[in-house]
Specification:
By secondary structure, the protein is an alpha+beta fold. The chain is built from four helices and eight strands. Helix 2 packs antiparallel against helix 3. The N terminus is likely disordered.
Amino acid sequence: MKKYLLLAAGLALAVLAVVGFTSCTQGSTVISGTGFSSQQEGIWVSGEGKVPVTPDLAILSLGVEAQAASVAEAQTQATEAMDKVMDALKDNGVADKDIQTQHFSISPVTKWDEEKEEQIIIGYRVSNIVSAKIRNMDRVGKTIDAVAAAGGDLTRINGISFTVDDPSAYYDEAREKAVADAKARAEQLAKLAGVTLGKPTYISEYGVPTVPAPIYYKGGAEAALSIPISPGELEVSLSVQLVYSILK
């Protein structure tokens, strides 16, 4: 019986060790001298750092959609329109490396036939959508205008979003602010509790940049009226959790 009890206890400890290790490693950076699972006392605080960022990259989702009686005819129309759209993008400074196909499809167009009581094919639709990165923020609106005019009524512009090409420097700044915020909280708690604050024994970092909702724009050639585009401001944020020891 003792043998089985020891075996069960050993398995339980192994499971706890695996769970503790997983919770400390997934999605966080951990610095701990004694291990997070062994922390039984201390001052636990969280801190947040936020940095306002001006976007320097616009990502435009656009393409063409053509419908005709045959696949060949629909594909010809879509290809001709897409070639013009691609030329418009390149004429406005969008590099080949910044244009990537997102979606391409050829699908039948059907309708319900009352006499036959079934769906019948009345044509075919060809859709070709790409993602284009616009690095010159001053030309975002002009690029949309040019694309809409080039593709005519076959143009499809699904949306636009803004981001930062390299956010690493902003993350460094946000990290500094988050740690400083956590330290200030810990110092205040220690003072209120009448104890002496020690060194950090555990640090966990996590964070996701806040991205505004995309601006949606749809229309063909008749909508090409010098679209006003405002990238606004992003906010890069990071949160940290620290555990400080308490000096006796």
